[in-house]
Design goal:
The chain is an all-alpha fold. The protein has one domain. Helices cover 67% and strands 0% of the residues. It contains 15 helices and no strands. Helix 1 crosses helix 15, helix 3 crosses helix 6 and helix 10 packs antiparallel against helix 11. It is globular, with a radius of gyration of 20 Å. The chain starts with 21 loop residues before the first helix and ends in a 17-residue tail after the last helix.
Length: 383
């Protein structure tokens, strides 16, 4: 990321709605779909020419961690908000859908006669599963471990804003420092052979969130960078292709090994810079009024459904893997990928319309009144 020091310009006005930077909403869909195709590849089987790009699609989680920090910083920087109001908004945003999808996932486990352990299940509903090794895969809904991390991010977010306000003149330095600390953390944790610390532990994953926060503040402050949008997309694609080459070179072709220096671990940890480039490049193009290919009504709708898509798709693929014999025919695998991904998308749309959106709308005004700024007061991004 090269800072354009000579051109600090004011941030362009954007419409005061939840899609104030609409391309980021569109990107959410592609990140969620990356996770969906990762599950398809893992639980249905590989497809020549496609699996190569989604083999390490778990990177979508890293994208969401960075994006979460960026969007929250964009929405709340220089906007006094009492912590109880902020925390209630976040609860309203994630918890209703989380509870419903966790209950659905438990239903799938019952159908499979494979209920998870009681401690892990209770830990899931308390959003504690990322804090205990081996709980991530054993809870009520395995992908929801990321919400355990997000809950921690939300808890420390007001403190991050205080630190950023105190060091306002040194925000760029803090961003570079956060990226440097990530590299050092990877080296230290890798040397200790502790993959869980890198992959799951909320305190270390918070570095990815912090990078997003700092970038969001800098953009809100009017800072711009010379980042080519097309090259940012190419960097993300090239990174995923490079991970496959990494696994061939370092891991002997083994795709999913917990060696901290493996391609599997790097896929989640070292993806932060390339996703940061893409997020900033897309946001800047929106603020400048330039096209990104991500702002159509269809893309925005798919982006709104992406949270539900992320939470529901794994249980659908899990049920397929349990009840269906391995599919050897490539054509049938392609059809299975399409059918299961389509079913996941339909389920996500229904969950958004029936649970996520109405529950959030109701809860946001239930205790603190209408806490969203009036039109023209603040340009909102969907949180």
């Amino acid at each position: 990321m090269t800072e354009d020091i000579s051109n600090r310009v004011e941030v362009a006005q954007v419409r005061p709605n939840r899609d104030g930077i609409p391309s980021l909403t569109g990107l959410r869909f592609w990140a969620a779909m990356l996770v969906v195709l990762y599950h398809a590849n893992l639980l249905v089987g590989s497809i020549p020419g496609i699996s190569f790009f989604v083999e390490y699609g778990r990177t979508g989680v890293t994208f969401f961690f960075v994006l979460s920090g960026f969007i929250l910083a964009w929405n709340y920087w220089d906007r006094p908000t009492r912590p109880p109001v902020f925390y209630w908004r976040r609860f309203a945003r994630i918890y209703p859908l989380f509870v419903v999808t966790a209950a659905l996932s438990l239903g799938v486990y019952v159908w499979m006669s494979a209920l998870p352990g009681l401690a892990e299940t209770v830990g899931t509903f308390l959003l504690l599963q990322a804090w205990v090794p081996n709980w991530r895969e054993g809870g009520a809904n395995p992908p929801a471990w990321t919400l355990s991390c997000e809950a921690f991010f939300y808890a420390v977010f007001p403190l991050m804003l205080l630190v950023a306000a105190r060091w306002r003149r040194h925000l760029m330095l803090l961003l570079w420092l956060a990226l440097a600390v990530m590299v050092v953390t990877w080296a230290v944790a890798g040397g200790m052979g502790n993959s869980w610390v890198l992959d799951v532990f909320p305190a270390t994953r918070a570095l990815q969130f912090a990078v997003g926060v700092l970038a969001g503040i800098l953009l809100r402050e009017g800072r711009r960078w010379s980042i080519n949008y097309g090259l940012a997309i190419a960097a993300v694609i090239g990174y995923h292709v490079g991970l496959v080459a990494w696994s061939e070179w370092h891991d002997g072709g083994v795709r999913y090994t917990l060696d901290p220096y493996s391609a599997y671990m790097a896929s989640s940890w070292l993806a932060t810079p390339v996703f940061l480039l893409l997020i900033v490049a897309a946001a800047q193009r929106d603020l400048d009024g330039r096209p990104t290919g991500l702002k159509s009504p269809t893309m925005l709708k798919l982006g709104h459904w992406s949270f539900a898509l992320y939470l529901v798709n794994e249980m659908i693929f899990r049920a397929w893997d349990h009840f269906q014999a391995p599919v050897d025919n490539v054509t049938l695998r392609i059809l299975a990928w399409i059918a299961l991904a389509g079913l996941s998308q339909i389920a996500a749309a229904l969950l958004y319309k029936a649970v996520e959106h109405p529950a959030e709308k109701y809860l946001r005004v239930r205790w603190f009144g209408r806490t969203t700024p009036a039109a023209g007061q603040r340009d909102q991004v969907k949180e």
